[in-house]
């Protein structure tokens, strides 16, 4: 399994190097959003309106952190379950979103969209939000503050650790891993 | 006759919800460490290692073990001989529990994860209401158990009304199938609570109660169900899902089964899925 140290925004060449099972350490900025924010973004796209954030070349982290204690960048900030964003992801990939970070498996439609638009799906460890918060250096709300924990944020990360679950070639670590260890 | 101060209940709950969210309890840690030894997959081993590191950081910095600090779910056993003292401006036990929850989630910088309405989805802003199950018992017991129940694992739960002819085999297959379907979603390694019998709502409640059994991984005193638990854990751990679904030997840390009498025509079974971030604590007064 290869290891990639990448910076955002990401290009197609970087995406092309990633294979399911590879380790990735991200430095730069991640967009953060979950259920309600995705609904709002996709509603805007359907209405032909401009988005409050630029998603081209970006990675989106599915997270709703705990509030930051005074003087801290963020609270506990692990991934949320990704399938709830499945109905929104393909259209975002078609507009240039290069990847998402969450946990749990994706739909066939999302996997196909990632193959078509050269994007990846990465996972960080669910339930390790305190540990993950250590690779987040700052956090700003950039849209929909009224959504509380569901607002869209932009976080600055350093060596943010992930594993590639779905690559742009159709590779799927969840499927491969399960097959390898399943005793039928 | 025992008198319990509502203000004290509120204050204890305020502390309890924080501690449960910051400190992975010893029984959970022990099972995590034991299962870590049995994991063979390199990615799986690393997940175990991160779970343990995460627990250290959360405890040291008073940070949520997980960002999903859950719905605040309570089981309250209250004796018939308990008298409540309405102090601290509190008029009822429900109010004391609600206030404790609100204060604890605020003070502890815990996430507010409740929406006012399932369809209109506006956040209530203080993680209330509390989800309270009352049990009236003889004597002067007062025991309260709290679980911070995250959404990811809860969403992978299931209930089925079996015909009695489906037998134990039908129930066991259903439990394994539910764990398999959940796959990587509920943050494996998972804990599986199974409720067998009762009726529709009773089975679900039993499944949640099964999850709360302490210490984690202990067995049902009835040898019949204790065998069921052992068999189910073995079968689930053959699924290959592994820690975080990346493939491995340990998909579940424990299976707890609780049963109850049921109707001659039915055999309900409910499966409540819980993640490794198993935040359960109690106190007695
Ligand atoms: S399933 Fe559990 S560990 Fe995973 S995100 Fe939800 S609460 Fe956290």
Map the helices and strands:
The complex is a heterodimer of chains A (184) and B (285).
Chain A: E1 3-7, H1 12-17, E2 23-32, H2 35-46, E3 59-61, H3 89-94, E4 99-102, H4 108-117, E5 120-123, H5 129-132, E6 136-143, E7 152-166, H6 173-181
Parallel strand pairs in A: 1-2, 2-3, 3-4, 4-5
Antiparallel strand pairs in A: 2-7, 5-7, 6-7
Chain B: E1 2-5, H1 6-22, H2 26-38, H3 42-61, E2 71-79, E3 82-85, H4 93-107, E4 131-137, E5 142-149, H5 151-154, E6 158-162, H6 167-182, E7 190-198, H7 200-211, H8 223-236, E8 252-262, E9 267-274, E10 279-284
Parallel strand pairs in B: 1-3, 2-4, 7-8
Antiparallel strand pairs in B: 2-5, 5-10, 6-9, 7-9
Helix pairs in contact in B: 1-4, 2-3, 6-8
Bound molecules: iron/sulfur cluster (SF4).
Distance between the termini of chain B: 13 Å
Oligomer: heterodimer
Biggest interface reads: A-B, 45 and 49 residues
CA-CA gap between termini of chain A: 26 Å
In DSSP terms (H or I, runs of 4 or more residues), the helix count of chain A works out at 6
User: CATH architecture of chain A, please?
Assistant: Alpha-Beta Barrel
Beta-strand segment tally of chain B: 10
Q: Shape of chain A from CA axes? A: globular
Strand order of the largest sheet of chain B: 4-2-5-10
The biggest sheet of chain B, with number of strands, parallel, antiparallel or mixed sense and barrel status, is: 4 strands, mixed
Describe this protein's structure.
The complex is a heterodimer of chains A (184) and B (285). With 184 residues, chain A is α/β, with parallel strands linked by helices. Helix content of chain A is 26%, strand content 27%. Chain A has a 5-stranded mixed β-barrel with strand order 2-3-4-5-7. By secondary structure, chain B is of the alpha/beta class. Chain B has 2 domains: 2-19 and 65-149, Dihydrodipicolinate Reductase, domain 2 (2-Layer Sandwich); 152-279, no CATH class. Chain B contains 8 helices and 10 strands. Chain B has a 4-stranded mixed beta sheet with strand order 4-2-5-10. Chain B has a 4-stranded mixed beta sheet with strand order 6-9-7-8. A two-stranded parallel sheet of chain B has the order 1-3. In chain B, helix 1 (6-22) runs parallel beside helix 4 (93-107), helix 2 (26-38) runs antiparallel to helix 3 (42-61) and helix 6 (167-182) runs parallel beside helix 8. Chain B is globular and about 55 Å long. The model of chain B has no long low-confidence stretch (mean pLDDT 97). Iron/sulfur cluster sits between chains B (66, 68, 150, 152-153, 186-187, 275, 277) and A (78, 126-127).
């Amino acid at each position: 399994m290869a290891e990639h140290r990448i910076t955002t925004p990401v290009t197609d060449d970087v995406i092309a190097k990633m294979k399911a099972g590879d380790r990735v350490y991200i430095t730069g900025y991640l967009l953060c959003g979950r259920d309600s924010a995705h609904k709002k973004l996709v509603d805007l796209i359907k209405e032909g309106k401009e988005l409050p954030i630029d998603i081209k070349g970006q990675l989106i982290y599915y997270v709703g952190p705990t509030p930051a204690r005074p003087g801290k960048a963020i609270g506990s900030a692990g991934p949320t379950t990704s399938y709830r964003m499945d109905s929104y992801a393909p259209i975002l990939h078609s507009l240039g979103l290069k990847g998402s970070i969450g946990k749990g498996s994706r739909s066939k439609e999302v996997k196909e969209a990632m193959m078509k638009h050269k994007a990846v799906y990465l996972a960080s460890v669910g339930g390790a939000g305190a540990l993950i918060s250590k690779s987040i250096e700052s956090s700003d709300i950039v849209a929909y503050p009224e959504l509380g924990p569901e607002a869209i944020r932009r976080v600055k990360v350093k060596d943010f650790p992930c594993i590639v679950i779905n690559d742009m070639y159709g590779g799927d670590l969840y499927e491969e891993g399960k097959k390898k260890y399943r005793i039928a | 006759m025992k008198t319990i101060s509502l203000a004290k209940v509120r204050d204890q709950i305020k502390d309890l919800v924080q501690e449960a969210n910051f400190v992975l309890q010893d029984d959970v840690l022990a099972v995590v460490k034991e299962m870590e030894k049995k994991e063979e997959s390199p990615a799986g081993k690393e997940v175990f290692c991160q779970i343990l590191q995460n627990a250290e950081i959360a405890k040291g910095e008073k940070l949520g073990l997980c960002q999903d600090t859950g719905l605040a779910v309570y089981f309250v056993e209250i004796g018939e001989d308990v008298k409540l003292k309405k102090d601290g401006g509190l008029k009822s036990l429900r109010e004391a529990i609600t206030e404790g929850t609100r204060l604890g989630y605020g003070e502890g910088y815990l996430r507010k994860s409740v929406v006012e309405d399932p369809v209109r989805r506006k956040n209530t802003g203080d993680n209330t209401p509390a989800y309270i199950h009352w049990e009236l018992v003889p004597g002067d017991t007062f025991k309260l158990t709290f679980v911070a129940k995250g959404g990811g694992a809860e969403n992978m739960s299931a209930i089925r009304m079996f015909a009695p002819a489906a037998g134990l085999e039908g129930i066991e297959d259903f439990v394994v199938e539910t764990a398999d379907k959940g796959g990587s979603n509920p943050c494996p390694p998972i804990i599986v609570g199974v409720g067998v019998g009762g009726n529709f709502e009773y089975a679900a409640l039993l499944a949640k109660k099964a999850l709360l059994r302490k210490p984690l991984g202990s067995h049902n005193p009835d040898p019949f169900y204790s065998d069921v638990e052992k068999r189910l854990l073995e079968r689930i751990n053959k699924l290959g899902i592994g820690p975080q679904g990346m493939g491995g030997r340990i998909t579940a840390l424990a299976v707890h089964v609780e049963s109850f009498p049921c109707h001659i025509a039915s055999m309900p079974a409910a499966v409540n899925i819980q993640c490794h971030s198993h935040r359960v604590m109690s106190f007695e007064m």
